[in-house]
């Protein structure tokens, strides 16, 4: 029970990596406020809750700053503390600089970066008061290496890595650790583009699996990211801050 008595917020908890993190945290005894704009986060919470921990759904869009602030207030009042924040919700779109629009960039930034800042700002005073906290933001290997057509997404994810370093320095005196995780190709609804699961295409199988562009020769599973989030959220992580942990089966070490 590595998170017994801990209170966590997880954004984008309705599916994919977010719901895997939610399940892992609950299994380890945490109370989790599960935030998503999709209503099925209620069902995910229902299924995850058990004798050990519990998950409480909050349905709203994290770019709605006032609602986000009310949610954090409510969680702090009801449970008396906030220990862990996982900034996981994100969006992406595909298009190069000739195709994309300023509004697409702005919306990507609002969700993938601005809401990360806002969430950290809202929980920081609670964590500082109790002299303990863990902020975990989900970045992406797209911030380090890219095949193009994801400029706004890659730039926002790069921003997360830089922001995490800044947070780590500012919050260390308060016992708050800030780290990021950069997943590679993970098998989630986000890997389905225009109805095609990118991890199942002939190109993926040939290039990433057969030719081992991913040395571990397979896409990752959401649980494999969730277990890293659990480590970063727990007492096991006591001397790591400002870092980005890459979870990509070796993808970014190959040419
Ligand atoms: N799947 C991958 O291969 C992969 C790779 C690298 C990084 N990531 C990152 O991992 C994280 C999770 O990815 P995933 O694949 O599980 O994505 P996903 O699309 O399957 O799930 C994202 C969740 O976030 C929610 N969400 C999006 N915008 C929101 C908003 N404005 N307000 C509230 N909720 C919102 C969605 O409703 C959804 O439930 C993201 O940060 C993503 O960028 C994923």
Helix percent reads 40-55%
Structural class designation: alpha/beta
The number of helical segments is 7
- Strand residue percentage: 15-25%
| Mean pLDDT level | 97
* DSSP E strands, number: 9
Biggest sheet strand order reads: 3-2-1-4-5-6-9
| SSE order | EHEHEHEHEHEEEHHE
Q: For the terminal residues, how far apart are their CA atoms? A: 40 Å
What does the overall shape look like? globular
How does the major sheet shape up? 7 strands, parallel
The Rg value, from CA coordinates, equals: 18 Å
Q: What are the segments in which pLDDT stays under 50 over at least 5 consecutive residues?
A: none
Which molecules are bound besides the chains?
Answer: nicotinamide-adenine-dinucleotide
Entry keywords:
17% strand; alpha/beta; 255 residues; binds nicotinamide-adenine-dinucleotide; seven-stranded parallel beta sheet
Write up this protein.
The radius of gyration is 18 Å and the shape is globular. Strand 7 and strand 8 form a beta hairpin. Helices cover 42% and strands 17% of the residues. It has seven helices and nine strands. The longest helix is centred in the middle third of the chain and has 29 residues. Helix 1 crosses helix 7 and helix 4 runs parallel beside helix 5. The chain is α/β, with parallel strands linked by helices and 255 residues long. The strands form two sheets. The protein has a seven-stranded parallel sheet, with helices on both faces. The site of nicotinamide-adenine-dinucleotide has 27 residues, from helix 1.
């Amino acid at each position: 029970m590595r998170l017994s008595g801990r209170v966590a917020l997880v954004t984008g908890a309705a599916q994919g990596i977010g719901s895997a993190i939610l399940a892992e945290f609950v299994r380890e005894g945490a109370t989790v406020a599960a935030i998503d704009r999709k209503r099925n986060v209620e069902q995910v919470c229902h299924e995850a809750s058990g004798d050990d921990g519990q998950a409480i759904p909050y349905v709203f869009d994290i770019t709605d700053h006032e609602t986000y602030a009310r949610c954090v207030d409510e969680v702090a009042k009801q449970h008396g503390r906030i220990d862990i924040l996982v900034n996981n919700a994100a969006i992406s779109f595909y298009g190069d600089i000739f195709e994309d629009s300023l509004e697409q960039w702005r919306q990507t930034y609002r969700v993938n970066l601005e809401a990360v800042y806002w969430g950290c700002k809202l929980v920081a005073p609670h964590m500082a008061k109790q002299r303990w906290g863990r902020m975990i933001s989900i970045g992406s290997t797209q911030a380090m290496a890219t095949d193009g057509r994801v400029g706004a997404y890659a730039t926002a994810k790069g921003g997360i890595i830089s922001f995490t370093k800044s947070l780590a320095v500012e919050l260390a005196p308060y016992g708050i650790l800030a780290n990021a995780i950069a997943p590679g190709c993970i098998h989630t609804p986000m890997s389905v583009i225009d109805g095609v699961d990118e991890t199942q295409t002939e190109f993926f199988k040939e290039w990433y699996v057969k030719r081992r562009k991913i040395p571990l020769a397979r896409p990752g599973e959401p649980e494999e990211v969730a277990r890293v989030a659990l480590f970063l959220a727990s007492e096991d992580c006591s001397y790591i801050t400002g870092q980005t942990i890459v979870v990509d089966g070796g993808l970014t070490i190959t040419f």
